[in-house]
Specification:
With about 375 residues, this protein is α/β, with parallel strands linked by helices. The chain has helices spanning about 10-30, 50-55, 75-90, 105-115, 135-145, 155-160, 175-185, 195, 210-215, 220-230, 245-250, 265-275, 285-295, 310, 325-335, 350-365; strands at about 1-5, 35-40, 65, 95-100, 120, 150, 170, 205-210, 235-240, 260, 280, 300, 315-320, 375-380. The longest helix is centred in the first third of the chain and has 21 residues, at about 10-30. The radius of gyration is 21 Å and the shape is globular. Bound molecules: uridine-diphosphate-N-acetylglucosamine. Uridine-diphosphate-N-acetylglucosamine binds next to helix 1, helix 5 and helix 11. Uridine-diphosphate-N-acetylglucosamine (UD1) binds near residues 43 and 134.
């Protein structure tokens, strides 16, 4: 069978890397008929947002690059659909695997499904409830046409059941992002900024902000920055800046000696910094999962999260959109009272293997692979 694996934007790359490895190893080990075609949509195209991740995570060069680049929501989504449809019309696949919630995820799911190609969604079922976020729309639309739902949590299973999805299409397998994190932990690398800012363990903050709601309005962005700077007791703030944030930050003209805005980091350097940080301040979703695994305190500058287990089980706290919430949270942290957190169920580094086992069972019933019941926790 031919499987398309779709990747478009930075947070996709760590999710597809272990799936590709698991496909390759299943193919070699069990001699099952399993071919894949890696399709990069080109949503992210900067070296630091894309190529560096392929190199560090040993992801093979994509078979096809749709090279769509930036654009408005509809432009980007439409271009991806048109170009992926062309690929499928030329050579259809048997299954299209999409991951996460970016525009590439939704666009390719639609293009495949309209050609009657089965769609598998990795990280299905999560919801923030905030329909103003493009990612939430992408999640809802993708899940509405998905055939096989691979989930990271019981909450996601529950959300899907609530939508009327049958249990036999929901596979609670864990988190492929964590597969990558656990396998790359020994390879984490100290970035140059460590020496430049004279960093010491647990004595600096890492910050990432790129959501339109936080950075697109200069007065909101400035207020957030001022509150953060005022409440960190002079500790260095390392701020790898996303391309969309770069333009906005330049306009704010903030210059304080402990703020270090730097270029986006590679995966290995970024997670080295996170692993040794006192706290991470972010508006990303994926980073809150990584801090949970590394046991690093995390403050999320959003009103909602699609990953509630990072708060209920992990080290994450939602601060909402009021900048005044930052100082009290910092006080708890500096007093040493931040929650310790635990590891969510099945975030164990073996998720991609489970996904590939399920796919083999679904598409190749006669395979000699051991029963998936042993490995996949059935959603109750
Ligand atoms: C996308 C995802 C978001 C994810 C984020 C991580 C959607 C709807 N959003 O948001 O969920 O958290 O990626 O990075 O899919 N740009 C560059 N170089 C690049 C890519 C983008 O300069 O390689 C600039 C462009 O000016 C572009 C802007 O960044 O207009 C935004 O890029 P886009 O892909 O539209 O969305 P992100 O904000 O990156």
């Amino acid at each position: 069978m031919l499987i398309d694996i779709i990747a478009g934007a930075r947070p996709n790359f760590m999710k597809i890397a272990p799936i590709i490895k698991a496909i390759e190893s299943a193919h070699a080990q069990w001699e099952v008929d399993l071919q894949y075609r890696l399709i990069h949509t080109g949503q992210h195209y900067d070296k630091k947002m894309s190529a560096d991740f392929f190199e560090q995570l040993n992801i093979p060069t994509p078979h096809i690059n749709l090279e769509v680049g930036s654009g408005t929501q509809a432009e980007q989504t439409g271009k991806i659909m048109l170009r992926y449809e062309e690929v499928l019309l030329h050579e259809p696949s048997d299954l299209c695997i999409v991951v996460g919630d970016v525009n590439s995820t939704m666009a390719c799911a639609i293009a495949a499904k309209k050609l009657n190609i089965k769609v598998a969604h990795v990280e299905a079922g999560i919801r923030s409830g905030d329909i103003t976020m493009p990612e939430e729309i992408n999640r809802i639309v993708t899940d509405s046409i998905t055939d096989y739902f691979f989930t990271t949590s019981e909450v996601a299973n529950h959300n899907l059941r609530h939508l009327g999805i049958n249990n036999d299409r929901i596979f609670f397998v864990g988190n492929t992002m964590i597969d990558t994190l656990l396998s790359q932990l020994p390879n984490f690398r100290k970035p140059h900024i460590w020496e430049i800012a004279d960093l010491r363990e647990r004595n600096y903050l890492v910050m990432t902000l790129h959501r339109p709601s936080n950075v697109d309005d200069p007065s909101i962005f400035k207020q957030l920055m001022n509150e953060i700077i005022a409440s960190v007791r002079g500790l260095p703030i390392i701020f790898p800046v996303h391309p969309r944030t770069r333009k906005m930050l330049a306009n704010l003209d903030i210059k304080v000696p402990n703020l270090y805005p730097i270029e986006p980091l590679g995966y290995l350097e970024f997670n080295y910094l996170v692993n040794h940080a006192k706290v991470v301040i972010t508006d990303s979703g994926g980073i809150t999962e990584e801090t949970t695994i590394m046991g690093v305190p995390c403050m999320t500058l959003r009103n909602t999260t699609e990953r509630p287990e990072t708060c209920t089980i992990g080290t994450n706290l939602l601060l909402g959109d009021d900048p005044k919430a930052i100082k009290p949270a910092m006080d708890i942290l500096f007093e040493g009272n931040w929650k310790k957190g635990h590891i969510p169920e099945l975030w164990d580094g073996k998720t991609a293997e489970r996904i590939v086992d399920v796919i083999i069972q679904l598409f190749n019933k006669s395979s000699s692979v051991s029963s998936i019941e042993n490995q996949v926790v059935e959603s109750k």
